[in-house]
Amino acid sequence: MTQALPPKPPARPDRVSLWRYVKLFRQDILSAQPARLYRAWMAEFRTPFFRSFLVNQPELVKVLLKERPEDFPKSDRIAEGLKPLLGNSVFLTNGEAWKRQRRIIDPAFEGGRLKDTYPAMRAAAEAAVERLKERQGLVEIEEETSHAAADVIFRTLFSIPIEHQVAGQVFSRFRDYQRSQPLLNLAAFVPLPRWMPRFFRRGTRRNAEVIRELIAQLTRERMDAIKAGTAPDDLATKIMTTRDPETGSTFDTAEMVDQVAIFFLAGHETSASALAWALYLMALYPGWQEKVAAEAEALADESFAAVSKLRVSRDVFRETLRLYPPVPMMVREAACPEQFRDRDVPKGAQMVLSPWHLHRHERLWENPDGFDPSRWQTENGKQCQRDAYIPFSAGARVCTGAGFAMVEGPLILSMILRAFRVAPVAAQVPVPVAHLTVRSKNGIWLQLSRR
Length: 451
Ligand code: HEM
Description:
Blueprint lengths: L17 H10 L14 E5 L4 E5 L2 H10 L8 H11 L8 H11 L5 H25 L1 E4 H18 L6 H15 L2 H8 L12 H27 L6 H7 L11 H32 L1 H10 L15 H13 L6 E4 L4 E3 L2 E3 L4 E4 L1 H4 L20 H9 L14 H18 E5 L7 E3 L3 E3 L4 E6 L1
Helix pairs in contact: 1-8, 3-8, 5-6, 5-16, 6-11, 7-9, 9-10, 9-11, 11-13, 11-16, 12-13, 12-16, 13-16
The structure holds protoporphyrin IX containing FE.
Protoporphyrin IX containing FE (HEM) binds next to helix 11 and helix 16.
């Protein structure tokens, strides 16, 4: 029996006018793209305002991300959209400023530290299961996974649960901020001429200010606790006390606020999206769901060692990140003129990397649109994992939280499936759309019942 494919957004016709393109873009970046991108190695978008290139060939992706990242810095256009919230965070900076930030942040996320972070993650996973026990029945699961992932961030970073008054406010303000996102997409991916007015809604800017002030409050309190010697040994303390090995300096409070803002944004939206899709896929493929649930019995052992036993869950999560990469596209800028595949790429051109298209590339992957967690044990799966799989990006700017997310995701997935059975809701097939991350147009609805 052929199994149904997981949802994929419709592609647009090959040729559309610029205005139609911009309109489609404002709705959703994924359905604004033509189907040929699933087969192309490189594509060019030429409009009166900008030239951008989508790079979809493993060798070229490697050049941009791993071999010559400094020739393809983060595009200023991204900063333009996200600066009100993220300031000078590591996500937006380039050059020396970025290098210094990574030298201070990276040690907090090293493999060895994950073990110290684990009890907080596990506590958040248990709290998520308890919350779901209250709900049961018909549940919109993105809301729940957002809650869970935000809880993970606050517990691991500041040792406070999401119920903490300030954490709760950041979370709800952030949700409002998200709702005004499509315009940010546009600013980031379709570079507008400088003279064109930017369409930040007043509410978006105001929300960013409030979120930053709340984070500043937590950071100031933590700085005081560090000075008083009473700070808990969590990620915030680790980052705020780590000295740059080259200059000996630490982050001051303002710099830390920028970093906390990105940890919150990059760390909760992404994991929440992946977890929600993973649970939906489990509802669609009950055979895999049962395997994950059976394996999850290993979690009776509360120690970090149990995570290494969640092999099926990890393959399922990895397959989810392939089909629904939470960061569907990334943009870089060519710092000098280039020639790629016999095409001239001018200085300043926007270079779009698309995990979404690369992960479903029809000339690289076997069964590109199918859900098959066992592919990771096959020759093709292993080859593609090396060459055509970048859910966390790659190279020097790889996601700092990749290791963290690969523990958190399979853990929460397993904890939920250990307690509940999930089933799809016939009238509610989710439609993937990309806002800041890949979400479903009308949420992801599942039927939850206790095991
Ligand atoms: C499934 C979960 C996650 C996914 C799919 C993901 C994906 C990504 C991707 C694709 C990038 C590169 C973006 C670009 O270059 O334009 C990135 C960067 C980043 N991520 Fe993640 N992320 C996840 C979870 C996390 C978590 C849990 C944290 C922290 C707690 C985190 C922190 C960061 C930071 C700080 C950067 C910026 C790195 C830099 O530019 O040097 N992420 N992430």
